[in-house]
Amino acid sequence: MITGRPGAESIVLSKCKDLVSLEIRASDNDIRKAIDNELNTTIKIISDAMDDDPTLRNDILDAIVAKAKGMYCPS
Q1: CB neighbour class for 19 (10 Å; exposed up to 12, middle 13-18, buried from 19)
Q2: Where are the alpha helices (DSSP H) in 2-74?
Q3: What is the largest CA-CA distance in the chain?
Q4: What are 23-75's pLDDT values in tens digits?
Q5: Which residues, in sequence order, are CB contacts of 66 under 8 Å at separation 6+?
Q6: What is the reported pLDDT for 4?
Q7: Residue 70 contacts residue 25 (beta carbons within 8 Å)
Q8: Sign of the C-alpha dihedral, residues 62, 74, 7, 25?
Q9: pTM (global) more than 0.85
Q10: d(C-alpha 30, C-alpha 26), whole Å
């Protein structure tokens, strides 16, 4: 099994014979849920900032989902 980001696939696939390819992407909703869950266990400074600014949580989620483009890598 080989995984990788788009763009590198032509190099990798040129070395393989008899292969099957499957694109796996997370939906924006899946990413939002995962990050929202991480924010529930985040450090106190960020938690306090989210408590002080009710829009901050959604701003964080929107920014991450927009940049992720279907990718999520848990730590």
Answers
A1: exposed
A2: 9-13, 28-40, 44-52, 56-68
A3: 56
A4: 778 889 999 999 888 887 777 778 888 888 889 889 989 999 988 877 755 55
A5: none
A6: 67
A7: yes
A8: negative
A9: no
A10: 6
